[in-house]
């Protein structure tokens, strides 16, 4: 679910006119215009359509396990990957994209304010007072992973998105940012991903193609490791946090039926 925290931090910088997600990603390793990775945009990183050759497999040695467990500078590791697909044409979920975004936040904010930035601009404003983000050996927040919070912390985070970026009398994220967040990435053939949030959208008005067919199509959610979830359902004015462990294929814990029962309980 940490990836969705990165969405919020990027959204704050976009609101403050410090970043434009349609710009090329400011990654120093890709500065040469002749480098094919130079054309990767911030939006490509957010939509998981960067096209980088990066394997996300936690069940053996892969790019993601090397990055998380053997690399002291995770963004530099991700930046060293070559290009496999033209940016914006192929969807593939990778933690490398997120750690590049985390370093971009660092470079945008500057060293003096970077490590306090998430706490000043997001966590303290939402009352996420138990929340912690870990850094790698280079000092960059591990944007893909390694954040810790209580269920109430995560519920407050969900409420920010439920209320279109508005919380405690402040527009922390713009309404336009929320709209972009829950817009399907064009290159995602399954139609289930926005900007570092998962969607419950359907294809061709066929509800059976939704990940959770018994749950409204407007639901979107932050997905963490082994079944941790923050479900946001605007049409029901509902945020549901689940922090249990699900070591099953596709981290399945019966979420479709679980959410259906939660919705039925508040509708009755």
TrEMBL record:
Domain Beta-lactamase-related: 1-244
Superkingdom, taxonomy of origin: Eukaryota
InterPro entries: Beta-lactam-related (IPR001466), Beta-lactam/transpept-like (IPR012338), Diverse_Enzym_Activities (IPR050789)
SUPFAM superfamilies: beta-lactamase/transpeptidase-like (SSF56601)
Pfam families the record matches: Beta-lactamase
PANTHER family per record: BETA-LACTAMASE-RELATED, BETA-LACTAMASE-RELATED DOMAIN-CONTAINING PROTEIN
Identification of the protein by name: Beta-lactamase-related domain-containing protein
Natural source organism: Rotaria sordida
